[in-house]
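Key idea: predict the complex, not the pieces.
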Amino acid sequence: MSFMQINDLKVHYPIRGGFFNRVIDHVYAVDGITMEIERGKAYGLVGESGCGKSTTGKSIIGLEKITSGTIVYEGENVTNRRRDRNSSYNRDIQMIFQDSHSSMNPRKRVQDILAEPIRNFLSLTPQEESKKISELLEIVGMPEDAKVKYPHEFSGGQKQRLGIARAIATNPKLIIADEPVSALDLSVQAQVLNFMKDIQNEYGLSYLFISHDLGVVKHMCDYINIMYKGRFVETGTKQEIYSDPQHIYTKRLLSAIPDVTPVGREERKRERIEVERNYQQEHAQYFDENGRVFDLVTLTDTHLVAASASGLQVKEGI
Amino acid sequence: MRTSEELLKITDLHTGFRIGDNYFDAVDGVSLTLRKNEILAIVGESGCGKSTLATSIIGLHDHNKTRVQGEILFKNKNLARMTEGDFNEIRGLEIGMIFQDPLSALNPLMRIGEQIEEGLIYHTDLTKNKRRERVLELLNQVGIPNAERVARQFPHQLSGGMRQRVIIAIAISCKPQIIIADEPTTALDVTIQAQILDLLIDLQKETGAGIILITHDLGVVAEVADRVAVMYAGQIIELAPVEELFANPKHPYTRSLFNSIPQMNSGNEKLNVIEGIVPSLMKLPRQGCRFAPRISWVPESAHEAEPTLHELSEGHFVRCSCHNHFYFKGEKEDIHHELYANK
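Result:
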């Protein structure tokens, strides 16, 4: 059962100009997104830069104003109360940022950084708070003396782990992870990903994992949403997306990922060119005349793809 | 490909940065050759010295703060001993460079056409009209549609992929024999990355240039490289043809790296984590196997006192003998038995 439903979420930014600086147009950063989030599952949000995936994450947690659409959390409409101090929503949804360094106050010690969510949401005595911080540091595998250090004294991987510690301080239900490992080296990335998986299993967390790296998303997520120009082009389970991609954009994205073996690379290049040609040719089947992605059509219980009625018929005919 | 001529021969290169009164070598004894018609990839994590190696070749360091020792032979000239004036004769004309961030590599106040023309003005005696023709030809060559219009535009008017194409056009404008590409696709999306890599391969086939490709992405390496050098802490620890390296990685570091890639076709098993961190430049152990502290479970006797590169098969070099005794944590038992059985 899902504990959170997002219905037709839209975030539009006005473009101002002309006489009196009136609104002359909008940027459709997020343009009608519907998804459900279940407990203990990880959801991937994949797309190229500028497709609106970060905006989606930010608008869910309340850092971005929603133009229209609703967010229902545990049966309650929380759309306009996302940053409300007293609501449980604010406590249960946490975020990990891409650049862990700039997401921490450089003048605060680690214990103050980690104490912030605790002081906001849990009323603990100073002793309890100190104990809680030690626990958090232990969970993320950092030594006790890290408490009195400043963020700049840590390496990139350690800082990202502190970011995670801060996010899990209030026992959240959903963590929105916005490119949490993009800035990290391969071996450090592995460390952080392993760790995120561990705490997911232990605490039954849900993740909304925003990334452009399909390898990482595949490793972490149960469900994957492919996003393009503010809309979903395809959603489905990991297997459905990777072994049976339906939308031409998904195919294009998958064919562009370098495989970690030099065997058959000529073949992959040919395939890439083929997909790219199809992408140009079949554009009309997948995008309307304004270049907007069509609404999602249900293929199976979990697999949805954006296509026009005619485009879908062509596919079924095959 | 094996027999084709050598373009660049680096022997025992040390590039050190001055910190306080001492120099610390970021590149510590690297020997490499680049052949004609080949793409040589240099892989490693941040801080391993791969970019320093590249900038040493083309002399982009601050001479007051760095010390370059050793030999970089190019056309019988030692680039490590060159002055700034000599370098200007070579940069762009014989060695081209592609940078990571296309926006900061381009001048925001100059039109695209002018920026490509700059190298031509400096290195060739083409007339103005001929230069303009060449600029349009280059833009077409790197797959930019509407070349005439783009030549009149400014960098901010182009997308990231287009900017990187412009950078490539600048790098190949004087048909250099060597192109150094420092993380050319790191700042780009995967679909654009695929296009740029395909473009690089095509250009290389056309011009026969040697390309040094610096990257941290093993996927990119698998896609384009002919030979691969893996660097760790300023040294090359493994060097092999690309098929050989991916099929048969030897050095513990290379093997650990491969095991920490989230694979496209793998399930949910745990990724391998390399213990510890890359040591900083000042704390680098200068003796013994540099990877030893990060594989502490491998007995000390497995390492060489002065690790050197050993040729295991043709063209496949590995530093230190510890790879013979390396096993991942967890597979300990079986390997241990094997070790004792051998003894």
